[in-house]
């Protein structure tokens, strides 16, 4: 299993880091079999598996429940778990308690927090307490209300400068990596060059140290539309719906179950039963 120090070395050697989300036992097992370096139990689970409109309603309990299943499916992969909305803002004490539960109760290896500013001191406190932290800058979905929608961030020079400073702040606070979401490729490249910890991009172009995508998005599983930055490798949805339709039709038309799906009793036992 790769660890935080390995990710630093990968950046130095120009070896890309592969991160993918997983939310349950089978997706985690597939991610591990597929050879990803890091599994992210993202709070995007609120949208892709729980059906919420945003990540805001996701709770620590939700994250623990799903991360436990992920851990059972991927015992040999580094697992990062998202800290949900408002669980790392009230105080350093609350942040440590919540992160402690997310790590201790699940077996995950690190937590991810969105933003800089007041979050920097939390990154520092967590790292000092022995909990590896992945930062998350650019489009931070937990702030969708403040950002005014899911839009590309850091497009103007002023916002870009702030983002570069934030990335340095996260590194200085002890973060082992930064997820950088939905920013112009030139800015992402500059961020990756200006810090020594790996920058894992999503919608941030190719000149970063790794990529992360959502499991359901790359597989076309249960999702109707995907953002521009997603590469969909398959669309399993139609296969799944066709399979369910075929099952329903078989039941209605008395074509399932067949003999091969059926158990039988021996004749002699039937004789005893009915006389
Ligand atoms: O929750 C999530 O899936 C994420 C990634 C998109 C980076 O935070
Ligand atoms: Na997230």
TrEMBL record:
Origin: domain of life: Bacteria
Positions annotated to bind 3-methyl-2-oxobutanoate: 43-44, 82, 112
Names of required cofactors: Mg(2+)
Details of cofactor binding: Binds 1 Mg(2+) ion per subunit.
GO MF annotation terms: 3-methyl-2-oxobutanoate hydroxymethyltransferase activity; magnesium ion binding
Alphabetized UniProt keyword annotations: Cytoplasm, Magnesium, Metal-binding, Pantothenate biosynthesis, Transferase
Alphabetized SUPFAM superfamilies for the sequence: Phosphoenolpyruvate/pyruvate domain
Signal peptide location: none
InterPro entries hit by this protein: Pantoate_hydroxy_MeTrfase, Pyrv/PenolPyrv_kinase-like_dom, Pyrv_kinase-like_dom_sf
Enzyme active site: 181 (proton acceptor)
Keyword Magnesium attributed: yes
Recorded GO CC terms: cytoplasm
Gene3D superfamilies found in the cross-reference section: Phosphoenolpyruvate-binding domains (3.20.20.60)
EC number(s) stated in the UniProt entry for this protein: 2.1.2.11
Chief site of localization: cytoplasm
Pathway the protein contributes to: Cofactor biosynthesis; (R)-pantothenate biosynthesis; (R)-pantoate from 3-methyl-2-oxobutanoate: step 1/2
Catalyzed reactions: (6R)-5,10-methylene-5,6,7,8-tetrahydrofolate + 3-methyl-2-oxobutanoate + H2O = 2-dehydropantoate + (6S)-5,6,7,8-tetrahydrofolate
Residues binding Mg(2+), per UniProt: 43, 82, 114
Cell location: Cytoplasm
Example GO biological process: pantothenate biosynthetic process
Free-text function comment from the UniProt entry: Catalyzes the reversible reaction in which hydroxymethyl group from 5,10-methylenetetrahydrofolate is transferred onto alpha-ketoisovalerate to form ketopantoate.
Protein family membership: Belongs to the PanB family.
Subunit annotation: Homodecamer; pentamer of dimers.
Protein's name in the database: 3-methyl-2-oxobutanoate hydroxymethyltransferase
